[in-house]
Design a protein that fits this description.
The protein is of the alpha+beta class and 345 residues long. It contains seven helices and 18 strands. β13 and β14 form a beta hairpin.
């Protein structure tokens, strides 16, 4: 029996799920961001300004869907920007709300954590429960997990961001619980020179038993010129397959895991059938299978001819499978991991 790992029906929508605007420390307005991303074929942008969740549903039209979110940060030193920011560890997490209209920000603090650009000025637009006390954050696994749990219980889509830039390694991120996905590529950091291709970190978490997806995102702040190599828009994205471009349909697809991450390649089909996983994609020089133990597989042609399909045997010991696709220019795409017990194998 064929099991589609990416849905057989529906439409793929190109999305940036991590984005900063003039509402915090980005240089572009939400309107300018919409224009730039739509010019590059995007249908979805999650506006995730630092620590403040401000809806931009005024930008909604039949071809563009803004998602409501924010990026919460935990810093090793203090609740304000430290002069030694370059040496302290931190944890940044994006939270995307299931609510299209008038979403409420949980774990709000009325005066702290408003140090990114125009945060403080725009905090007046945040919808929060005025009966709740101020929530204080600490850079500890216990505090981070408690914060995540509040949003997890409220149904948010939660992603762990740029571990390389954050100076975090397995010792830190292995303790975080309750995330839906992690950034397998953060293009804003990558464009700045960081090695923010995080396949190794992703496998660390998967092999620990965390059943999370992987996304590509820009984390764009747009402080460099558009013709600069450091321009940080439209470099990594998430392709979400949903029945329609509505908030509810797209958010449900995210929670189901109906997406893949990319910096170039297109994945058209992905399914499991009779002990094999089959992928069909845009022309690629390399297609690789990754598993939960010391086994991998690869398809590539010695003569340089490009591939548009690959078939891999799946072994019961694999625990999970995921596939990466590399195009002729060296740009990758990544499927999320699929655990074999969920496939009935």
């Amino acid at each position: 029996m064929r099991t589609y790992l990416l849905p057989e029906s529906g439409n793929f929508y190109k999305a940036n799920l991590h984005c900063h605007s003039t509402f915090s420390d980005g240089k572009l307005t939400p309107e300018e961001i919409k224009r730039i991303y739509m010019e590059q074929g995007y249908s979805i942008v999650a506006y995730t300004d630092h620590n403040i969740m401000i809806p931009h549903q005024e930008l909604r039209d039949e071809n563009f869907l803004p998602l409501n979110g924010f990026e919460g940060d935990f810093n090793e030193s203090a609740a304000t920007i430290d002069p030694n920011l370059g040496t302290i560890r931190c944890c940044h997490i994006c939270f995307i709300s299931p609510e299209e209209h008038n979403p409420r920000q949980l774990c709000w603090h009325r005066s702290e954590y408003l140090f990114h650009g125009n945060n403080k000025e725009n905090s007046k637009y945040v919808n929060f429960d005025e009966n709740e006390p101020d929530y204080v954050r600490y850079y500890t696994p216990e505090s981070i997990n408690d914060y995540i749990a509040h949003f997890r219980d409220a149904g948010f889509f939660i992603t762990y961001n740029h571990p390389t830039w954050s100076l975090e390694n397995y010792r830190e991120y292995s303790h975080y619980e309750g995330m839906d996905a992690m950034e397998i590529c953060n293009y804003g950091c990558y464009a700045g020179g960081f090695d923010e291709e995080n396949s190794h970190c992703y496998d660390d978490l998967l092999r620990q038993g965390k059943r999370i997806g992987c996304i590509g995102a820009d984390d764009n702040h747009n402080h460099s010129p558009r013709d600069s190599a450091r321009w940080d828009s439209c470099g990594a994205w998430t392709c979400i397959k949903a029945p329609e471009l509505t908030y509810d349909a797209v958010f449900a697809a995210l929670k189901r895991g109906d997406y893949y991450a990319s910096r170039g390649p297109v994945i058209d089909e992905l399914y499991f059938e009779e002990g094999k996983v089959i992928i069909k994609c845009s022309p690629a020089k390399r297609i690789a299978l990754h598993t939960g133990w010391r086994r991998a597989d690869i398809r590539m042609n010695r003569d340089g001819r490009l591939l548009t399909e690959a078939i891999f045997d799946v072994q019961p010991r694999d625990k999970y499978i995921r596939i990466s696709v590399t195009d002729g220019e060296g740009n990758p795409a990544h499927t999320k991991a699929y655990f074999l017990d969920q496939l009935g194998y």
